[in-house]
Amino acid sequence: MSATTGSRIRCAARRVARQPAPLVALFGFRVVSAIAIALPVSTVLGAAVVGYPEGDAVLFEPGGELLVETVRLHHAALGAALGISFRWAIVLGLVGLVPLAMLLEAWRTQARLPWFLLVGRGLRRWPRFVAIFGLTVLAQSIAIALGVAFWPLGRSLGEAQGEVAADLVGCVPLALAALGVVACAIAADFARIGVVIGRGPGWASASRALEIGSRSPLRAASVWLACRAASLVVVLGGATLAILIDVHRPESWRLAAVAAVHLAVVGADVMLRAFFLAWATELVEDDLTPCRRSPRPAALRRHD
Amino acid sequence: MTEAHLAGLGMAAAASSVLLLEGLAPALPDARVEAASASAAGPDPSPSDGAGDATPRASAPAPAPTHSDHPSPVTSYHIDARLDAAAHTIEGTAVITWRNTAETPIEELWLHQYLEAFAHPNTLFLREAGRRHRQSGLGDPGGLTVSSLVADELDGVDLWPHRAPHSPDDPADTTDIRVPLPRSVLPGEILTLTASFIARMPSLVERTGYARGFLFAGQWFPKLARLEADGTWAHFAFHPQSEFYADFGDYSVALDLPKDLIVGATGERIETRFEEDRQLLRYSVRGVHDFAWVAWDGFRERRETLGAVTVTLLYPPGHRWNADRTLAALRAAFPRFEQRYGPYPYSTLTVVHPPSFASTAGGMEYPTLITTGGPWFSWAGTRAVETVTIHELAHQWFYGLIASNEHDLPLLDEGLTSYAEARILRESFGPGSALAWPGLAISAAALQRARAATYVHDDVVVQPAPAFASFSSIGGLVYSKTAVTLDTLALTFGEAAVDRALARYTHEQRFRHPTFADLQRSFEHEVGEDASAALAAALAERGWVNYVAGRPHCYPAPASTAPATTPGVSGETCRAIVYRHGTLRFPVEIELRFDDGARERQRWDGKGPWIAVERHGPPRLIALQVDPARRIPLDTQRLDDAATIEPCPPSRSVERLAYLAALALGWMGT
């Protein structure tokens, strides 16, 4: 890692730490949204085992007999509830772009902006964020469709070398599709940052930000993947803790402990996501606003 | 198989049998004592895990099986066959030595040409397969052409021109052919039939045929149907939901194949010769009722010895992990099957894992040869490879050694095999026997119970395979309901008692062709009349049971009935009803829970349609649960087994699902 990159990472960390309130808002929104998304399905699950004095703890017992039984007897209701949850997820995912925009807006200044101002600016950015979201999903869908379409071709190319080679070569289009999905996600973040901090008209600053990001795609992907990998490690650690706590047992402290672990994991996930956004903001700001209030020495900037 | 080898096997078998009998013998006197009390009180609904199983009735143990107890052959085959790998044809001559084991003279033979099921799209097999959604596609057709069938003892007359032109009542099908004889064949008389045939192997369908260079030759030669003792032939046209049925005999098969093919087959290879670009292999085996073989130049091979048996595992390149798991499953299951169901009397076992392009050849059983399957990576955390291996291995007993009629009574092979498989999976892998992911363990028993419960009302289990509505129905009833019924009997009447019943059944029916009555009789002898009646009701009569717990209702206790209570606390009487729906009756436990955290279990014999539970408090009765230890997996509905007046909110589901949703929102970019 170059010194420039290292200092940019430090700046990103400082940027994240500088504005905790919008970050907490983002975290809070995510938690509340998640509960709203979970409720339809969990209501069906809870109703299925309402007769059991342990409540839905029986769904988590080893062997899964009652979980399987619940799915068998209530699959129609669960399917309908999942549909509602899915629609909720889409709606809340879109609404969640407002706190995301608020966070990026907050990072534009050193000062702490009043809430009403942040919300107003977030709402103002929302239509463009939704458009970026739609374009991203479209591009990602195309990438996935291409990967799936070319999967049989890859398989047939590798078949001469045996079935392992066939499956591995077949996975190449899928892996490329996955890379495409990641690239779209990174590009979407750069576009959002451009929309917020750019001073150009219309979509110009978004495309300028994309151009900046595309100048160092490997670095952007590395930071993004590092954040995601760290998030995955935290998730796995949380899963291990949750298994050890064993929520199937009746004591309510176990539920509270697992919930605390999971909240910590979601918090870490939010922080890591914010860190990537902050890093990308640093990168874009360097280019878009040469006279910005950057804490980095000008000498280091020349190495970019 | 050489005589010396057989003698060695015989000694090992005798030792195993002695051990088995030693395991059975001490239980018998105690069992008689227990029978008196059991008949009065009914079976204990909560036996300990095998050790203290109630045995209401017992009689002399079954005769001990040995390795030297090969049956006297009834239908033996000496086959010389040559494979044309390019044309996918096998040209051969089969000398069939058949003995009339009936008590009446026989006027006709019935010959199965199973391969004719794939001759054209209008055969019974393919018509029904399309209708019942099992296997609707036929690639390159196959077929079996018999050119002559000559019996030495019948003046060398070719019987084949006099055959019926098609299967009975089905002009489009030629899988079940009647061959009239010029004269009666007397009881005990032997016919030596010579059949010349050409098998045209289809592209792989229903576990026979070719795919690229891979060939699985199952049901590839003309097979005599089995003659029952009353002089009737157990013959049938090949149906997609059905399998096979044949007499025991000795097989000697010579295969002439391209040199580069790696071959696995039923029996022991006793001769290998190479001539230019061909190899000549001869296989021999005593006391089997079918012969299958597989050939592919891409196989990798591993050998291992399990007791006196040489296991050969043929698997595709890249499947080393699967090979390890397959062998581990065999090591776990083989000795337990031998211990429970009698010694394996053959010197070889060939296990074939087909390549992915021939995956439809997987999951099949033949004597001393089984096929497994699964992708090279298998699915992490699942037991698919182990499950199919253990299942097909169990068929070496329930099909191979106990050769029931698979067409007429599939429960005796698939049902008992599924029970044997589930036992081993549970013993080996516990609650994660189907799926073992971090935080999510699903047992094979839970899935099997769910399948059985889904189909429980559809049909009886004791019926011919084609009589089932669909292959899913066979899966739910024959495979799952039979296994779940036996599991319920084991958990209710004791696992050791059910083990003894199956040991008796497998010993008595070894190298025989049992019926459901034979299985029932074994249960009656070893477990008792109640268990035998439950077995019959569950499998032969569409029997079912569902215990339902009613919510407790509390009301102020009348002064005369209220017990002494804490001063200032008024007494309450709480009453709840447990119902037994359905036709089956099993004793069951009921757990009562009180508001001070106390629990109490009481036993119900389950004979009546309902029972009322009443308690005076405090403490107050707040919940009850029927069958808390889950000893009745046949219970068709688990969710109504408990009832409470203080329900818990679904906090765990909310928490876990909200967590997953929160992570998903992160991936959506918010």
Model description:
The complex is a heterodimer of chains A (304) and B (670). Chain A is mostly helical. Chain A has one domain (3-301). Chain A is 81% helix and 0% strand. Chain A has helices spanning 3-18, 20-48, 65-95, 97-106, 115-158, 163-197, 204-215, 217-245, 252-288, 298-301. In chain A, helix 6 (163-197) crosses helix 9 (252-288) and helix 7 (204-215) crosses helix 9 (252-288). Chain B is an alpha+beta fold. Chain B is 28% helix and 28% strand. Chain B contains 13 helices and 31 strands. In chain B, a hairpin with a 2-residue loop joins strand 17 (300-306) and strand 18 (309-315). In chain B, helix 4 runs parallel beside helix 5 (384-394). The longest helix of chain B is centred in the last third of the chain and has 23 residues, at 471-493. Mean pLDDT of chain B is 88; it is low at 1-58. Classes of the chains: A mainly alpha (304), B alpha+beta (670).
What distinguishing features does this structure have?
heterodimer; A: 304 residues; mainly alpha; 81% helix; B: 670 residues; alpha+beta; 7-stranded mixed sheet; 5-stranded mixed sheet; 13 helices; disordered N terminus
